[in-house]
Amino acid sequence: MEIGEPVCLATDALQALERLHLHLKQSYKHTDVFQKSVNTLENLRDIKGALDGSAQNFDSPQICEDYIQELKQQVLMHVPSSVSTENQEKFQDLINKTFEGSEVLSAVLLTCPWYQASQDERGEQARHNVLFIVYLSHDHQFLAPVNQHVLDWKFVLDMGWLYAVELYHFVHSIVKGKTRCVEVLYCPDSGQLIQTNQWKQLRDQLNFSKVTKLRGYVEACKGQSVSGIGKKGKDGKFRLVESTTFHQFCDSFRLMNHLFNVTADLPPCTEVTKLTSLPDIAVKGKDLLYKLYKDPDVSKRDIFDILVQWRDFVVEELKHLKYTSPQEVEEIVGKWQLEIRLKGRHLTSPRVLPDEHSSLTTQMQEIGGQVTKLQPQQIILIAQAGSHMYGLSTPTSDVDFVVIYSEPCQNVLGRCKEIKDNFESRGPSKLLEYGAHEARLFCEMLLKGSVVILELLFGENHTYMSPLWKELTTHRKCFVTEKGIQQYLGLIQNNFKMLEKDKNEGGPKDRKLLYQIFHKSDGVERMMKGDIPNVRCSGDLREFIMNIRTKPLENDFSRNVLVTKAKGKIDGLLKSLAARETRMKENMDFSVVTDWLLQVRGLKSV
User: Fold this and answer.
1) Is the separation of the CB atoms in 169 and 153 below 8 Å?
2) Does residue 81 sit in helix, strand or coil?
3) Which of 10, 127, 201, 300 would give a disulfide with 48, using CB separation of 3.0 to 4.6 Å?
4) What confidence score (pLDDT) does residue 503 get?
């Protein structure tokens, strides 16, 4: 149990509030006071978790704020042509200090050449600069047991003048043909502040024409060149949005320049010197932009008309363009990313013991569907879920399997897009149902305290258990937590609400709701004592539940009697939970789950 005065004090505060909350629930449930107690409970749980050491969560990359202002000053003072060797060293020093702890693969000073060409003063030319950084996270960050939404949030830093992305987000954007990332990759040396040897290798391996001829890139340039400054009328023609700014005009011409370069088989235009070789209509637009900056009375509509004319001409030229297959780019970029992440290491592949291989293969074939497309060494666990796992099945019980599998690590490390991490086959017409979860998704659900997932871990004698699974079960005890108790309790209370709402009068649905209440309540009682729940029922509890499942619901087992017993069981649990003097750790052990997932990926030995 937890030790230390701060943890004890936090426990005392939590338990006191649990008792108050229980009282408020009976008399003040629909008041502001009750809602305040709900919020305070959550805050106290967070405090207790921080004090008992279980609040550890995703370790996202961090930047050092100490050098941000100085770095911003440098970005807004220079254009690529003004960056001397001394300036570049200054940039590199500030970037490395700001991103200390992460490996910076590339840092590029991006300018809009169309904006730069319209300004006389260097300070003005650099006004809309962006410092674009691509960095590499650590294994425990990139392979963390969190979903892609969290990674998208934590791995992308956008401060306007500074845009930093983790390597995966960069390669994902390249394959989709996002213009800004394509500009970064093929930015000339004058704008490169940091470029590692690996970065240079990608530029050598991936010819710019493959990327600029991706449909995504072409469509982005074509659409974004006018969508920000024009609206399409009912006649199909674009008309200028009067509020368009000078900088928006420059961005639109920049994108049109990229689109024109596709037809000319040239790299994206990111240098002001490249604006010398443009068609006459583009030169006319450039001259008008220069005049507009000096004289606000220059007609914006004339500039917009020139842009649309240039666009129409280029779009016509693109009608016969042969697009690059995204898979072709994915293959190059994915292999490159894999090599960078491995850093010369060799993956340890999971193995299936020879005496288990035949039975495992047979079981996979019996489940069928997409499970048969997996390799035996990918299988971490096969378990028969529900009443079969609880020892409460009847001849009419559904056959429902849960499969935990791992995606090959080289696919995960080299991925250029999100990998589908679950599949299932369910429905009333299915004789056998299954749900399959990839290891990362399984870990995410485990950390959230999913009852179904916890029961897999707490259960015994599953159909197939790999060495990796057996390794995880040695840590079962650290998943007996307050979060787990709350998840079990939530399921119990939800079942009771459904019983009250749906007067099913003893139908199959009622029987299932009732038996789960008593089964999960036993689990809560055991976890309150720090014990692992008995997933498989035995003794008096099994006999009681089997009567609910199979006997007529009458007399001592009538629906009303059972509902009353269930209500008494729930009330007793709530009182017991509030009356405790001690608590389990609040949360699951994030580091244990992360380390295990790295073992699954072959980056740590079992």
Assistant:
1) no
2) helix
3) 10
4) 66
Domain ranges of the chain: 1-53, 104-118+130-345, 354-472, 482-586
Report the alpha-carbon distance of residue 283 to residue 307 in Å, rounded. 11
Measure the CA–CA gap between 407 and 437, rounded to whole angstroms.
10
CATH 1.10.10 fits domain 354-472: no
User: For the chain, how long is the longest CA-to-CA vector?
Assistant: 94
Distance of CA 475 to the CA centre of its chain: 25
Outline where DSSP puts E strands in 181-266.
Answer: 192-195, 230-232, 238-240
Query: What's the rounded Cα separation, in Å, for the pair 301 and 310?
Result: 14
Supply the mean pLDDT for the chain. 93
> Dihedral (C-alpha) 295, 298, 301, 305: value to the nearest 10 degrees?
-100
Q: Residue written as tokens 């994108």?
A: 255
pLDDT of residue 504: 63
Beta strand residue intervals within 85-179, DSSP E = 103-110, 130-136, 156-158, 162-166
| CB neighbours of residue 2 within 10 Å | 18
Between the alpha carbon of residue 320 and those of residues 262, 316, 323, 395, 432, the distances in Å are 12, 8, 9, 64, 51
Instruction: Count how many Cα atoms sit within 13 Å of the Cα of residue 36 in the half-sphere of its side chain.
Output: 6
Is residue 192 a contact partner of residue 106, using CB atoms and an 8 Å limit? yes
| Contact assessment for residue 439 and residue 380, using Cβ atoms and an 8 Å cutoff | yes
Rounded to an integer, the average pLDDT of 123-127 is 90
Q: Residue 343 class from Cβ within 10 Å (0-12 exposed, 13-18 middle, 19+ buried)?
A: exposed
What global pTM score does this model have? 0.92
* pLDDT tens digits along 225-251: 998 899 888 887 888 999 999 999 999
Residue whose C-alpha is closest to residue 140's, from 62, 59, 56, 63: 59
Contacts of 359 (CB under 8 A, 6+ apart): 464
- List the end-to-end C-alpha distance of the chain, in Å, as a whole number: 28
Strands 464-465, 432-438: pairing is unpaired
Asked whether the beta carbons of 449 and 586 are under 8 A apart, the reply is no
Summarize pLDDT for 253-280 with one digit per residue, the tens. Answer: 999 999 999 999 999 999 998 888 899 9
For the chain, the residue count is 606
